[in-house]
Amino acid sequence: LPPEIWREIAAVASADSVLTLRQISRDLRSAVDSLDQANLNRINLHPDSTVDLYQSDAGVRPVTRDPATQGITARDENISPVLQEFFAHSNDAHVRRHLAGNPSLSSEAVQQTLALDPNTDVRKHLADNRSLSSDACQQTLAQDPNKWVRWRLAENPSLTSEAAQQTLAQDPNADVRETLARKPSLSSEAAQQTLAQDPNIRVRVELAYNRSLSSEAAQQTLAQDPNEWVRSYLAGNPRLTSEAAQQTLAQDQNIRVRIALACNPSLSSDAAQQTLAQDPNLRVRSDLANNPSLTSTVQQTLAQDPNAWVRGYLARNPSLTSDARQERLAQDKNSEVRAALARNRSLTSEARQERLARDQNTEVRRDLARNPSLTSTVQQTLAQDRNEWVREDLAGNPNLSSEAAQQTLAQDRNDDVREALARNPSLNSEVTQGRQAHNLNRSIQMILRRIVPADR
After folding, report:
1. pLDDT at 46 over 70
2. pLDDT at position 454, please?
3. CB distance 309 to 334 below 8 Å
4. Residue 214: other Cβ atoms inside 10 A
5. What is the DSSP letter of 386?
C-alpha cells in the first residue's frame, strides 16, 4: 500500500493500544477486500508500490511486480482464472506471452483479450495453445494480419471452429491453406469444398490424402481434378464414401488412379467395382480381387476372369464366403488358384474342404492341411494322406482338434510327422500325448544316429 496509509496507521498505533491497531488492521483488510478493480488499478499505479493487487475469490491478494516472477506465475498450470484475467492486462509483453502459452488457459474472456493483443508474439503463442477453446477467439486469430499467427492456428489440433476453418480455407497465403488441408481434425465441409477448388496443387493433394475428408461434394470435385496425383490420392483415401466419385475414378484414364481405387477397402459402389472388374489392366483386376469389400456380384465376375492371377487373388480373399464362388474356384483348372482357396481361412464349408483334401495336386493338400479352419472330418481325411508332407503340415496345424487325427498321426511311420505333432501346442488327448512322448524319444534316437558317428 502507499506509504501515507501506513504512516496514518503508525500514528494511530502510537497513540492508542495494540488492540486498536489490530482492529484498524482488520478494518483496513475488510476495506481493501471491498475495493473494486478501478480503485485497485489506481493503487497499483502508485510509484512507491512494490506489489500489484488483484481481486481473488479470497479477497484482494498481492503479486510481485518483478517481471521474471510474474512470467513464472503466468505459465503456472495451476494459475487461477482471476490471476489469468489480471495478467492478460499486464503492461509487460513477456508476461502476456507466457500466459498465452499456458496449457491451463481456460477463460474464454482472457483468450479473446489475448487474441487482440498488440504484440505479435503473444498472439503466436496463443494460436499454438492446445487449450484454445473459444470459437470467437479462433475466429479472431483466423483473421489476424500476421500470416504466422494464422499458420500456427491452422496447425493447432484444437481448431474446432468451423467458421475459423472456413476463413482459413480462403486465406491469401498458400502455406496456411496447405496446413489446414492436411489437418486431421478438419471438420468443416464448407472449408473442404473451398479447399477442393484451391488453385494451388499442394493444397488439393493434401486435402485428397486427408483421412478427415468427409464432404461428398469435395470428393466429387477432387475426383474430376485435372491433376492425376490429386485423383490417385483421393482414390486411395479410406474416407472415400461418395459412390459418384468412386464411379468417376473407376473410369479414370490414369492407371495409377484405378489401381489405388481397386485397393481401397472403402470401395462400396457395386457399379464402380463392376467397372474395375472389367478393366483391361491385369494389375487393376488383381488388386480388386484382393479387396475385402467386394460385393457378391463382383466376386462372381472375377471368379470367371480369364487370368489365373485374378482368380487366385479372389480365392484367398477373406470376404469370399459364397459357397457358389468357393465351389467354382475349388474346381478351377489352375492348381495355384485351388491352393490359394485351400489357404483361405474363410473356407469353412466341409464339402469344399473335402474336395480339396482329395485334390490331385500335393501343394493344394499341403496348403489345406495348414488351414486353421479345418473341420474334424477333414482333419481325419488328411491324417491318412498318402504324402508325408501333407501329414506333417497337418500335424503342425495350431487348430488340430480331432483326437482321431491326432492318434493316427501319433502312430505315423514318418519321424518328421510325429515330431511335428509333438511340438503342436493344441494337443488335448492324454493317450496321444503318451504315444507322442514314446515316439519322440525314438525319433530323437534315430536323428542322433544319423548325425553322430557310431564309433563315438
Report:
1. no
2. 46
3. no
4. 16
5. S
Long-range CB contact pairs, 384-390, < 8 A, 24+ = 384/408, 385/357, 387/362, 388/412, 388/414, 388/416, 388/417, 389/362, 390/362, 390/365, 390/366
Q: Per-residue DSSP letters for 84-139?
A: HHHHHT-S-HHHHHHHHT-TT---HHHHHHHHT-S-HHHHHHHHH-TT---HHHHH
Report CA-CA distances (Å) from 324 to 278, 321, 392.
20, 9, 31
Residues paired with residue 59 on neighbouring β-strands, in sequence order: 56
Alpha carbon distance 137, 286 (integer Å): 51
Cα separation, 389 vs 365, in Å, equals: 9
Model confidence over 317-326: pLDDT tens digits?
999 877 888 9
**Model confidence, pTM:** 0.76
H/E stretch holding 37: helix 37-44
Residue 214, all three cell numbers: 468427409
Beta bridge partners of 61: 54
126-170: per-residue pLDDT in tens? 999 999 988 999 999 999 999 999 999 999 999 999 999 999 999
Of 51-60, 133-142, 336-345, 389-398, give the lowest mean pLDDT range. Answer: 51-60
Backbone angles phi, psi at 56, to 5 degrees: -115, 180
pLDDT, averaged across the chain: 86
Q: Following DSSP, what letter does each residue of 316-367 receive, concatenated?
A: T-TT---HHHHHHHHT-S-HHHHHHHHH-TT---HHHHHHHHT-S-HHHHHH
